[in-house]
Every structure is written in C-alpha cells, then in structure tokens.
Specification:
alpha/beta; Methyltransferase, Cobalt-precorrin-4 Transmethylase, Domain 2; 11 helices; globular; binds S-adenosylmethionine
Length: 394
C-alpha cells in the first residue's frame, strides 16, 4: 500500500493530524524537493522526484515495493496530480489518498466563485491556445498555469482574440505566506508572475464563437480547399462525434472537419492527413487559432500515410477517394460500429462514392447550397457546386 498525502503551500503547519501520522509512519518519503523540505526531519528515507518523473516512476515503485511509502503531492493528489497516475499504475486498492484542498478550491474561495460552476482548464504541458474554446462574451474560467510566464501568454492570446478588456486575476502561492492576487485587464498584463499560480479570467465583451459545428468560413485560413460552412455542419452531423472518439480526416485541406470534430468535446481527438506541405502548416495554425492545438497532423498521401495510425471511430474522406486503395484502407481500419463519411464534388469522386455505396450500403445525400449575393443593385442566388455525401456505418 502506498499513501499519497496532499500538502499545501502552508506546508507542515497546514497538514491535518491524519496526514501527519501517515507521513511519520512512512519508511520512505517521496516528493519534489519543495515538498520534502516542508516535512520535518525523521528516520524515513527521502526520495526526490527525478526528472522526467514518468519514465522513472515504475522503477522507483518496484525498488521500494514492500516498504511503507508516502508520496507527497501538491493540494488534492487526485486533481491533475500524482494520485491519479499512481492509481492508473497500481490500481485503487493499492493506493490510499489523503486529500488536501486543491489550488482550485482555494482560488474559488478567494474569488467567491462556486466550484461547481467553475470551468477549469490546464495549460500545464499544453499550448495556451486550449483556452480558446472557453473564451466567449460573459464567460469566466480558471486556468492552471505551467509557470510564471503562463499568465502573460494567456493575456496576449485573449487580447489577440478581441478580449483585451477581459478581467484577469493571477492568484499566486495560494495558502502560503507569500500569497498574492494580481488584478488587471488582459491588455495590461505582460510581466512574469510567481511560478505557482492560477489565472482567473472574466472575458467581458468580445466577439462570440459558437460551440456547434458550422463556424463561418472566415474563421479559417484557406486556399479554397475548405469544406464550406453549411456542408461542414452536415458533415459533422453525419460523423456524429461522441466524447472520447478519434477521427481521421483524410485529405484534410484546411483541417476544418478535424478541428470542428475536436471542438465537439475536449476528449474528442482527430488526425488530419494531408500531403500538401503548405496546407500542413495551415491546418496546424487553424487548429491552434480555434482552440484545438492538440490536433495531430500527418504528412503524406493516403493510403500509405494511414499505415500505423491508431484505429479511428470515424473517418471523413474529403480528398483522395478516387485513389486506388484509399477507401479499402479506411474501411478496414475503421472500428466496428464506426462511421465513414465521404464528400464528392467531381464526377470521378462521385463515381467512386457510388461504387462504395453499392458495395457497402449506407446513405447517399445530395447537398445543393445557394447563397444570396448582390446582382447589380438586386439580389440573386449563387449556387455552390453540389456535394454528394455518402455516409455509412461499419
Ligand atoms: C499539476 S497541477 C496540480 C494541482 C494540485 N493537485 C492541486 O490540487 O492544487 C498544478 C497547478 O496548480 C497550481 N498551483 C499549485 N499550488 C498552487 C498554489 N498554492 N497557489 C496557486 N497555484 C497553485 C500550479 O501553478 C499549476 O497550475
């Protein structure tokens, strides 16, 4: 049995008696140098976390197997903490967790925000652009910082998205003697903060961005290779993202389908497969700008580029359906119960899609969109190229 005791910035004096007893009884104490320094000396062997920790952890656990080990963790060990990692590795029956108030509980207490109404994001080990999904007029949320530079990075992004007047509070060293709260607008914040901090953002006024698929075409940088808004919304509806699912966006163009799939839920993942070098950079830039910087971009042509990719729950073929082997490779990689959607605009791709429909079934839909545009001083319909959409479940 391993114990994991949460400890706050108030250190040993703030630790409840139950946790102190577990620390005292331990034969081995593990933690960061900062956490170990908070615990008064005793007989226990002290093991400072090596860096990087994850690779070394299994070896460490093995070495001290059979000993009474107490791991020190910051705040609540089950909140973005080592507690969750240890339970994943050892199972819940072998890990005893002693929670402490998390930094987020402390932040909510200082701000007067109800915890259950507070969205919490983390930029620890992730690009700060992940906050984009939550930025909207009137929205507010907390961000766990990676370091003292995170608040300025977050503020610069808010300003670049038209939220320079957002109220930003940086809550540093919560619970400790050095605790401080800095308050300013996003456009004013450009300096480093103490390393241990949480950022509270109140967006205030700025441009809105809907969460449902069908973002305006202008949301994307593109060279014309973009699934247009109305067709995109219908395509995402046919793909039907479910939390935790993985999409392959084959022939991703500007990346819009994979991006809107990833925006459906934080746990949705997408891989964009694209052969055109310029488009690869554009996909990554669009993904970051629209709040899903974790979108994976794979360079190369299907079907060869699909080799070795993790099996998807859904596949969108926006390009390459006429190419020998693409449809077969996609169909065989798709998980049972998964969805495949292909959009065809040319006669050739329509023929490939129709052959697929005859062989595998599913549904064929023809999407014909017209947009009203000025014709001199009058208004007329401009018809976009019709799209044949094939959607099939495996
Ligand atoms: C990996 S998470 C761990 C959270 C921790 N398990 C908890 O419950 O507070 C680390 C994040 O919490 C923040 N953090 C931890 N202790 C803090 C404190 N006392 N004051 C402000 N932020 C803190 C760090 O800046 C970082 O963003």
């Amino acid at each position: 049995m391993i114990s994991v005791a949460g400890i706050g910035a108030d250190g040993w004096p703030g630790l409840p008696e139950s946790s102190r007893q577990v620390v005292h009884a331990a034969e081995v104490l593990m933690g960061s140098a900062r956490q170990l320094a908070m615990v008064p000396g005793g007989a226990a062997e002290r093991v400072e976390w090596p860096s990087p920790l994850m690779a070394a952890l299994p070896g460490l656990l093995e070495r001290y197997q059979g000993k009474r080990v107490c791991v020190l963790a910051s705040g609540d060990p089950m909140f973005f903490g080592i507690g969750g990692t240890l339970i994943r590795m050892l199972g819940p029956e072998r890990v005893h967790v002693l929670p402490h108030p998390s930094s987020v509980s402390l932040a909510c207490a200082r701000l007067g925000w109800a915890l259950q109404d507070t969205t919490v994001l983390s930029v620890v080990g992730r690009p700060a652009e992940v906050i984009r999904l939550e930025v909207n007029p009137g929205a507010r949320f907390l961000v766990l910082s990676a370091d003292g530079g995170s608040p300025a990075r977050i503020a610069a992004l808010l300003t670049s998205w038209g939220f320079g007047s957002a109220r930003v509070r940086v809550l540093a060293d919560l619970g400790g003697q050095e605790e401080q709260i800095f308050s300013c607008t996003a456009s004013e914040l450009d300096t480093d903060m103490p390393a241990l901090n949480i950022v509270a953002v109140e967006c205030g006024e700025g441009p809105a961005m809907a969460r449902v698929p069908g973002l305006p075409d202008e949301s994307y940088a593109h060279d014309g290779q973009l699934t247009k808004r109305e067709v995109r919304a219908m395509t995402l509806a046919a793909l039907g993202p479910v939390p935790g699912e993985l999409l392959w966006d084959v022939g991703a163009g500007s990346g819009s389908i994979g991006i809107e799939w990833s925006r459906a839920h934080r746990s949705c993942q997408a891989i964009a497969i694209e052969s055109h070098p310029e488009r690869l950079t554009r996909i990554a830039a669009n993904a970051a700008a629209l709040g899903v910087p974790g979108l994976r971009v794979v360079a190369g042509r299907a079907p060869a580029a699909l080799d070795g990719l993790p099996a998807p729950d859904a596949i969108f073929i926006g390009g390459g359906v006429t190419r020998e082997g693409v449809l077969d490779a996609c169909w065989s990689a798709l998980r049972p119960g998964g969805r495949l959607v292909a959009n065809a605009v040319t006669m050739e791709s329509e023929a490939a899609v129709f052959a697929g429909y005859q062989r595998l079934g599913g549904e064929l839909t023809r999407i014909a969109i017209s947009r009203a545009t000025p014709v001199g001083t009058f208004t007329g319909w401009k018809t976009m190229m019709p799209v044949t959409q094939w959607s099939v479940k495996k």
